[in-house]
Amino acid sequence: MPLDLAMPSKAALTEKLPAQWRKPLLHLALACAAVLLLFAPVFADMAMQFWDSSSYNHILFVPVIIAWLVAQRSGELAKLTPKAWWPGLVALAGALFLWLLGDIAGIALATHLAVVAMLQSLVLTMLGPRVSWALAFPFAYGFFLIPFGDELVPTLQMVTADLTIALTQWSGVPAVIEGVFIDTPAGLFEVAEACSGVKFLIAMIALGTLAAHVCFVSWKRRALFMLAAMALPILANGVRAWGTIYIAQSQGIEFAAGFDHIFYGWIFFALVMGLLLALSWRFFDRPRDGAFIDAEAIAAARWPEALERMAIAPGRALVGVAALCLVAIGWSVQARSVEAELPQQIALPEIPGWQRAPFTEGLWWEPRAGGADHRLIGSYTNADGAQVEMFYALYSAQEEGREAGGFGEGALMPGSDWRWHSPGPDFDAGFSQRLQAPGPEQRVTLTLYRHRSLATGSVARLKLSNIRDRLTFDAEPTMLLILSAREGGAVPAEQAIREFIASTAPTGEWMDRIAQKP
Q: Mind telling me which residue stretches traverse the membrane in this protein (predicted)?
């Protein structure tokens, strides 16, 4: 008997899609593929952070969560009809401009935010305002794809240190705190960057946002739950740090460190997450079978009607996406080619009232200025016995890999024996901090950036000034000055730096002269 082989006329997946969704989803897939290809280096950088940094490992689950959130709405979404919408291209242009600013200034956070916003604007462009409204929460949850939170580390270090010393003294352990260092009978403890609790905090914010949406309907309950989700990890991290110090008093530092890594690192915070959900369980008010959206209400809404009159042919929308992306990339390539002219050689300056001197005894200190075209380091002393180390770096341009204010650049070199201690004294200009090394040995440092007429300690202001150069294709050199003085000398560190600044005032113009800037 001959076999009757029937070939399917359509793919099973395509058959499951409502007819009005098939072409819009294809157009969306093509647009997203183009963005992923054109901006692949940015997406690759984000993925590397997700995989390599423990602070961002939780982001690996975010795409899965977004897909699940969309799947929960799929039945209702099938009742809507997507329509391409040209104002979405305006949103895309804004995202591309943000990427351009971040790319030419070397601001990774800006480029990461921009590429996520690009994908969101493509949804708006290809599916229209009504469907985008139905996807509002998954749409917004996409912002958790952005690796952020390192900016909170210094603040969280200080908060954790304050909580830890309070609990340590309350528990009867004699302790003294100085900055982020806590001295106890068992030894000296540092609330290091890894102990700040930032990775647990940002993971809890992501989890809390998801749980607040999925488990609650009342906005008041959602707000209270989010407050708990943000406060609990901060308090728990203080308890974690205190527990390590308390155990060390009887069991020793090595045992406490191992216990901290195994128990607190893998179990304690999992228990805190479970505790938050368990305490909130009885207050969950979303029905088990409750829909996340009401497609019929969205379809009947009158307010999107005026917006939907601004429809565009999907093919034209795709052309618009490609054109905008290519313009932004072309602008970036041209902007990156502009660099300031620099002298072939620069030298340490002569300073009235100060003489060159050997470096102070103790642990070697040297800032980091990766990618700088010129670097100078020297030590000066005056008649009062004040001694100051001066570090100066000169850049022809600012971009990824050569940023005066980049992560890991400046007075505190990663991997060295120096540690951040606390914010430094308040000088009239610049950014000050205290550093500490084993011994203990302390330094006060003052960092000042110079670009055009700007002299500041603000990395944000420096980057904004550099962005102007790149956007207008008119480059000026960027300068970095770091002054440092060691505590324990003939003159206190803060006073030594103030005397040095007084001898170079106005310091911005003095920095220009070192760069031989006319």
A: 54-71, 83-101, 107-124, 131-149, 198-217, 224-243, 263-284, 317-333
